Structure formats: C-alpha cells, structure tokens
Amino acid sequence: MTDTAVTGNNFLRTIIKEDIASGRLSGELVTRFPPEPNGFLHIGHAKSICLNFGLAEQFGGRCHLRFDDTNPAKEEQAYIDAIQEDIRWLGYEWSGPIRYASDYFDTLFEYALHLISTGNAYVCDLSADEAREYRGTLTEPGRNSPYRERSPEENLALFTAMRDGECDEGSRVLRAKIDMAAPNINLRDPIIYRIRKVSHHQTGDKWCIYPNYDFTHGQSDALEGITHSICTLEFEDHRPLYEWFLVNLPVPAQPKQYEFARLNINYTVTSKRKLKMLVDENVVDGWDDPRMPTIAGMRRRGYTAAALRNFCDMVGVARSEGVVDMAMLEHAIRDDLDKNAPRAMCVMDPLKLVISNYPEDKIESLLAPGHPNRDDLGERTLPFSREVYIERDDFREEANKKFKRLVLGKKVRLRSAYVLQAESVVKDAEGNITEVHCSYDDGTLGEDPADGVKPKGVIHWVSASHGKQAVVRLYDRLFTHEAPDRGGEEFLDHVNPSSLTVLNNCWIEPGLADAVPETCFQFERTGYFVADRHEHRSEKPVFNRAIALRDTWGKAGE
Ligand code: ATP
Ligand code: MG
Hints:
The protein is of the alpha/beta class. It is built from 12 helices and 29 strands. It binds adenosine-5'-triphosphate and magnesium ion (MG). It is found in: Cytoplasm.
C-alpha cells in the first residue's frame, strides 16, 4: 500500500483527515521530528522530515524539532548543529524554539516519583545478566524480580539516592511495574531510569540518572501537545508502553503514535552507527563526503533539496518494509538537474587542437545558451581562439562510422562554435598524440557547411588560452553490493574501490571559475556537476560529479 503525492494521499493524511472530520483533532495538527544527536542525518531521516514537516504544512499545523537526547555519552553539539542546518537546507523551519527531551528531565523525574507513589514503579537491584534471565523469552513468560514488592517509601528513598549520586552505575535501575508475563516483552517491567555518571551536553552535571527513550518520548510528545507522533515501524511494539505511560501519568495531553516503514535504499546503508564507522575508519572523508547518503553528503554531491523532497514524495508512505531502488533516487536528481542546471563545458582528459588557419592573435566571443529550454538562464560567452582542448577520446586517427567524433581527414562540430576538419597529428617519442592540427570553416558558425555535408558529431571544447584549470571529482556509488548490510553481510567488505576518481588536469570554460559554490551545472556530454561547497574558489575550482547523464550503473559504459 504505497500511496504517493501523485494521488495526493497517503495513509497518514487519511488518518488526519478522519481525525479532523470526527473532531478528535479539534485544534492544530502538531507533529515533531525527534532526531537523536548521535550522527548526521541520512536519506531516511529526510523522508521523516518531509513527512512530519510536510503534513504540518499541508494541514496548516506546526512541526517541532526535538532532540531526543537521553543518551549523553553518544551525543555531541556538532551533530545538533549539523541537524539544524540539514533541516533548513531541505527547506523546512521548525515551529518555536529548538526543543530537547532534556528540557523535560525535571518533569520526567516528577513523573517517575508519581509512578513510585502509585505503586507503578520500583527500584530493582538485579544485575543486567540476572535481569535478562528474569525477562523470559518470546515464548516463555518472565519472572517477577525479587525487588518488585518494595514499598513506595523504600523505592522513593532508593530512587532519591540514585539521583543524588549515592549508587554505582549499573547497581540499580528504576523499572515500571507492569506485567512480567505480558506477551509483549516491552511491557515486562521495562527499565525507565538508569544511573549514568556522565555529563550531558545540555544539562551538564545536573543529573547522574537518565530516563530511557521509552520513558521520555511519549511524555515529551504529551508535554508539547503533539497530536500525531509519527515514527518508524520498529516502534510499533513499543506503542502499548507509550500508551501505558500516558494513561498512568498526569500528562497534559494524549498524543497518538503512528508507524510507517523506514526508507531503505539498495546499494547503501541508512544507519547512523554504520555511517559513523565509515567516517571513523576513514573509508570516506567525513560525514559530508559526497559519497555518503547523509543529507550533508548529498548536498555536497550536488543533489538539490527540491530533488530530495520530490524523491521522498515519490516513494510514498507505506506500512510495510520495502527497499527502494537507488536508480529512483538518481532519477529524481537527474530530473531536477536536467530542468534547472545551466549548461557548461569541461574537458577532463585534454588533447590540444591547433586550428592552423585561425589567425594566431584572433579571439572571438561566441555566445552559447545557458540552457537549451530555459531562456531565463540567459547566455554565456565562450572565448574562441586558435588552440582549444577537446577530450582525448573524442579523437581517433581512424575509426568506423559508429564513431561520430573527430577522425583524421573528417569533420566534427565544436559545440556552439565552428566545424573543423582534422588534418594531421603530432606525436611524442613514445607515439602518443600530443596535438591534432585542424582547419576550420569560418562560414559554419550556427550554419551548416556550404557544401551541404554536415558533420556527424558535436563535441565539447575549451579555449586553451582562456580556459581555467580545475579539479574534477568523479563520484560513484559507495557500495558495489545491492544489500551491503543485509543477511549478515559485513558491509565494509562491499565498499566500491572506485567510488572516487580525482582528475587534476581538467579545463573548464572561464566563466565556471567564478561559479558560486553549490551551483550545479550540466557539463555537456559528461554529467551533472556542482562547484564544491567548501573547496571551490576561482583560483582553485573544484567540481564534484553529482551524477552521470545516464544510468550506466552495472552496464558497460556508452
Ligand atoms: P539510525 O538507525 O540511523 O540511528 P534512528 O531511527 O535511530 O536512525 P533517530 O535520530 O532516532 O535515528 O531518528 C529520528 C527520526 O527519523 C525518527 O522518528 C525515526 O523514526 C526517523 N527515521 C530514522 N531512520 C529512518 C528511515 N530510514 N526512514 C524513515 N524514517 C527514519
Ligand atoms: Mg534512534
């Protein structure tokens, strides 16, 4: 059941519409995006962002950003900053201040006291191993902890001692007193507070006990007046616990949790833990390496926010797990860049052409369209001179008819310029071609040759005396395996050894040196490229390949 934006509906929109119709949702729709700041966001999070912020937008409601920061040992301010930047870049703004689950630590502590005083929580001294034994299995019920019948007074004293730092880490925990025989293991007296003697990025050393995720999430939703708490399917089994807390605590509202399927894409991994391994083991060059499926990586790669939003819409919202083909993401990127990226020329493996009959001191400024179908993208000026660079593999001394590029004795058109004929080659001592000498036909600017014989091919070029040198980084998929981390695979074994090729001797048309970082271009005949966000400067232009023009993955090139 994958509904898409094309039909204008998905099951969550349907639920919200029904809630409005039935009066359950009488006020504003309030959603939230609740990342844990333990890594950069990835494409899966982009989907959750588009969904939560998108629904709020569609129904005139609001969406909160709340950092789910209950695990201080793994969390960092740098991730908090990066996550905000990613959300804004995707085109969304949260309502109100940035919120933190840790903003509610005082209230959560009060809630824990409430559960203790109502006989719904107890301090348990079982070790982790013992607790595991008592928990039972999927097929066998658990057994009651010997500490389960402690009185509220004793529990209160012990829990206060935990809070005051008087107990060792791991020596005791606070557990909800629910049902050790419950078929759903999440209800078998789950832990709600642990002793963690670590400082917290928001609350410093105020606490040495921290509530766990389950005890924090629903109550935070209630405190913020979240109406629809949307999460991924792995939390479906936690919903009864989410609801148990809401029923047993004096919370100001009763949010409802809805689950949808995580976005999985083949040929990549979407787990912060695994992405962190790629960073820590220097498989990639940081979280925003253009090969990473992180939002920051895709941004640096030249994927646009609009394309990612479109993609998230295209994949829809499902209730059952599935894997989306990487080709679909790539299609969304190509589609957007084809429509919006200005055209330009870049020669990546240069071969010099000398146009013997073109005057040595002559320079012309030729005009070329910014985009074939977009007049609003204007025109660009291409200086033309006696020496130009073309791609080495666009020339052959001999070739059959299938080769529609430059061949000795034959003609080719230089894009937006003249028709040339190759006359002779110059070779070095090893027999490598170092120059091709050509003649040009000066009546062919925007015109067919007078003899009516049209050249078969059009190739790209850059003036040797006006072009600028550039570094071009060709990125490819990071993994060669369709399912790098499924079925017990060791995902690091499937890293594509040629996911990055750096070309240091490229020539770009001169206007590209001044490209604003993060501007995307279609380099004619070669692909879509972006001026690197961090390293592109006019004295050292650096372009990253977002994606090739066509999908040739797994196929033998052109
Ligand atoms: P990871 O496994 O990568 O650490 P997570 O679910 O632990 O992911 P959180 O920071 O807790 O990451 O996630 C924030 C929100 O993003 C949650 O609501 C979560 O359900 C959602 N989310 C995470 N991964 C995906 C995904 N692949 N597809 C859709 N939503 C996702
Ligand atoms: Mg998580």
